[in-house]
Amino acid sequence: MACTATPAANACRAPAARSSEPMAVRWDVAVIGCGPVGALLANLLGRRGHSVIVLEKRPAPYPLPRAIHFDGEAMRGFQAAGLAEAVLSATVVGKGMRFLDGAGEVLLDWPRAQEPGPLGWHESYRFHQPSLEAALRRGLERFAAVELVEGREVVGVAEGADAVVLRLAGGGEVRARFAVACDGASSRLAARIAGGFEDLGFDERWIVADVRVTAPRGDLGDLSLQFCDSRAPATYVRGIRDWRRWEARLMPGDPEDMEPRAAWERLVAARGIGGVTLERAAIYRFRSRVARRWRQGRLFIAGDAAHQMPPFMGQGLCAGVRDAVNLAWKLSARLAGRGDEALLDSYGSERRANVLEFIRRSVALGRLINRSAGGAPPARRMTSIWPPLGPGLGPRDGIGGTLCPQPRLAGGRLGDDVAGHGFHVLAQGAARSLLPVLPAPAELRLPATLQGVVVRPDGYALGGFADAASLGALEQSAAAHAPAPVVAA
Ligand SMILES: Cc1cc2nc3c(=O)[nH]c(=O)nc-3n(C[C@H](O)[C@H](O)[C@H](O)COP(=O)(O)OP(=O)(O)OC[C@H]3O[C@@H](n4cnc5c(N)ncnc54)[C@H](O)[C@@H]3O)c2cc1C
Prior knowledge:
Blueprint: E1 2-4, E2 26-32, H1 36-47, E3 52-56, E4 69-71, H2 72-80, H3 84-88, E5 91-93, E6 96-100, E7 106-111, E8 124-127, H4 129-140, E9 146-150, E10 154-159, E11 164-168, E12 173-181, H5 188-193, E13 197-213, E14 224-227, E15 234-238, E16 243-249, H6 260-271, E17 276-291, E18 295-296, E19 299-301, E20 307-308, H7 316-335, H8 341-370, H9 415-418, E21 424-427, E22 437-439, E23 452-455, E24 461-465, H10 468-480
Parallel strand pairs: 1-9, 2-3, 2-12, 3-9, 6-14, 12-19, 21-22
Antiparallel strand pairs: 4-8, 5-8, 6-7, 10-11, 11-12, 13-16, 13-17, 14-15, 15-16, 17-20, 18-19, 21-23, 23-24
Helix pairs in contact: 1-4, 1-7, 2-7, 7-8
The structure holds flavin-adenine dinucleotide.
């Protein structure tokens, strides 16, 4: 159930089953910030039947696009929230990215398959962020136990023995068993929880301009282009419908207060851009940072609050989706009385190592675009990366913690849906298990000694099994860490 509220007058409608004053309820989870990561997390928890309050300081959704690309794993996350169709309707399949030198020669090619891949979805999608966020917010309306409260800023947090208490601007408190700060790159809570950030050293200002083409522009093509020129690094991205994006680095001598309009006009002149209408231009600071700590007691951070990376791989939001998917089932397990402190700690240790790989690769691509290292890239062709999780639940033996494929089964249904988004088995032959068993797709490459793998609710492997005994051990772990079942929508 969604509602709007202003600091002056909270207009929430509470679910009939609960108090008529939402702030007086002790919620299962309070989500701070209704950007894409907070909205997805609330959907994932709502789908498992948990009560969630989402507190958003803005009175209305942020209207301008930032992210423009997400990958097939993010799409699997939207599927887990029951929102695949709603999200897909405002996307086009991405074709890939090329890095060009000053003479227009291809330095590095990153093509994407045009057929659905091992994850059950395409490798790359282009999308319009406000449309995605609208779909995620509409998704919240499916759940009687989920409330979105807009126009309320969280200004303080205190942790008690059995609840987190959030203090709101304008007065009032919210109590919840857990709180997750999805409050973006300027997160106040991250400063408290994170114990500092590891900085990977990328720090540049870029003008980002979203335009609409005024006439068909087949000449621009469907690929994203990175112009790797140390004198004027720039990016072109094809958006959906008539949306296109141009970006350019502000150079070291540029004034601190450079107007976006002036930067845009310089970009137009440098790249000979024409036949477009400027919708908006903004200057962003691209950084590369990851929080040292992702949890403190009942408080967690997720999304840009926990990590930031330059957008050259289009992975910042994707990483936030992975955070939400990883954390949602673990919180659900604890709320259902299963799992332990180590399970909650595994959220940060697993996610941190995984996102670091994307940050490192994004920084390396940023250096290539600047050509600051000089010379040619180490390879002419690049493929997408799917790094494993860091240490956490299950072994890290080359199988445990790796991303598993999702089979498409007879009738077109996807494996995660058939398995109810819980622990399940992908088996290479016949296997008897207490868990749902699905046929392993060809993309699941296991050593000949293994019969299959137990997949966690987030799509990563809990571990591989060679026989009934090793499967039994994994089944026990799955039972001890199982989230609440998906009950809604
Ligand atoms: C130019 C650019 C291009 C990008 N391109 C891509 C891309 O192609 N692909 C990709 O995957 N990523 C991309 N990203 C990154 C992506 O946009 C972000 O990672 C993503 O939007 C982060 O989502 P979030 O929900 O964590 O944070 P946000 O979207 O920043 O949301 C945080 C929310 O919290 C609210 N909030 C803050 N403080 C409080 C408080 N105290 N109380 C209540 N509410 C609060 C804010 O109002 C906001 O709504 C790009 C980023 C930029 C800048």
